[in-house]
Design a protein that fits this description.
This protein is an alpha+beta fold. Helix content is 47%, strand content 17%. The protein is built from 14 helices and eleven strands.
Length: 476
Amino acid sequence: MKVTSTPGPKSSLLLEIVMPVDEVAAAIGNAVRQVASRSRIPGFRPGKAPRQVVERFAGLPAIMEEATEILVERGYRAAIMESETLPLTSPKIEAQPAVEGVEYRFSATISVPPEVKLGDYRGFSFAPTFEEPDAKKVDAVVDDLRDSYAVLTPVTDRGAAMGDYAMISFTGYRDGDNSPIDGASSEKMPIVLGSERLIPGFEAQLVGAKIGDATTVSVTFPDDYQEESLRSVPARFDVVIQELRARIPPPLDDAFAKQVAHVEDVAGLRAEILTRLKASAADRGRHEFADKIVEYAMENASVDIPDPLIEEEIDGLVDELARSIARQGLSFEQYLGAAGKSAEEIRAELRDRGERRARTLLVLSAVAGAEGIQVPEELIDEEVRRAQPQVQGQRKLEAYLASERGRRAIRASLRRSLVVEKIVEDWFDANPSAWPTWAPERPPRPVSSADANAAGIATSGSAAKGKRSPAKRSAK
C-alpha cells in the first residue's frame, strides 16, 4: 500500500492511498462472505454460498459496494497508522467503486492538530477570591430544607397567597371582541402561585381569591409568545379556584434536625451546614481561579482552528441540547417547531460556543505538552471502568469505550485536566497563605506522571479520582 500526504489549508492533510490488487481481491472475498451471511439463499446456510451463486442472487454491484467499504476502512486505518497522524475529526472520503483486478485508489482529507503559539500562561497577576459563608447563608439552607419537607394543607379560612398550591379552571378571551382563544381553557390546572408558570401577571391577580370565587384576570401575551398569532394580544381570563392548599414547613426543632441529618439538635444541624458551605465555597473559589487561568492562557495564545473541529464541537452542543429537551418529554423537532427555528439556525447560534470549546481544547493540549504532562494508563483504565455502567447495553458506546480511539479521547481529556490542576497547585504551593483559614485543609495535589517521573515514584490512578475538570468546565 502506498500513502502520499499533502498538507492543506487550515490544518488539513490530504492522504492519497493506493491499495494493491491482492488487497482488492481479498476485500472482494470478504464482501462475498458478508453479503452471503446477510442473505437467505435457498439451499445454502448463511455465508456458505459460493461467489457465483451470491453474485446471481445479490448482484455484482452489491458485492463491489461492500468491497469498496472494506477497502476504504482498511486503507484509511493503515494510512493513519503509517503516517502516525492523530486526526481531530472524522475523515472526508473521496472514493469510487472498486474494480476487480485493478489497484484501488481513494483519498481522505482529515483535520490534524494545528500549531498553537502559546504565550504566557503562568505569569498572571490575579489571585483566587473566596467568599466565607455566614449565618444568613446557613439560614437560607435551613429554610430550603424545611420547605423541601413541607406538607400541603387545605386552606378554607383565607384567600389565595403567593406560594399556595391551587387547582384552577379558566377560559380565555381576546380583549375587545370577546372571542374565545383556541386552547386557552382548562377544567383543572394545577399551579403554584408565584412560580410564573403562566402568562406574566396572571398568578398575581389570583391573590386574595377564595375557593369558588369567579375572578377576572386581564393580561397581555408576551411579545415572544410561542403562538405567533397571540403575541402582544390583550386577553381576559375567567378563573375559578377549585382547590387551595398551603405549604406548611415543619418546625425547626431538634426532631427535625435529627430527621434531616446525623445530628442531635438544631445547633448540630447548623454547624454541619456551615461546614459544608465552607467546603463548597473553598471549592468554588478554587475552580473559579482555575477558570481564570484557562482564560489567561487562551488570551495569550494564537491558533487557527480548523472548521471541521468547530463543526464537531457544535455537533456535541446540539446533542447536549437534544438530550436536555428529551428529559422534558419533547423531541428535537417539537422544540424547533415551538421555537420557530430551523436546525441550521440553532447551529448558527451555537457556533461561537463551539469555536470557543475547540479553542480551549487546543490551547490546553498545547499547555499540557509544554508542561510535559502524560497520563498514566491505569488512570485511563479507571475512567473506562467508571464509565462502563453508564453505557451498558449501548453497543456503539461500549465499543467506542473499549477502542483505542476512545482511550485516546479519555487520555486527552485527563491530560488537559491534569495540566490545569498542576498550574493551580503550583500557584498555591508558592502562595500558601492564599488558602482561606476558615476553609477545610487544602486537599493533596493530584499526581501526574510528570511529577511522579521527576520524583522517581510510581503513579496511581487514584490521584485524580473524584476531581472535577476545570478544563471541561471552561470549555462550555
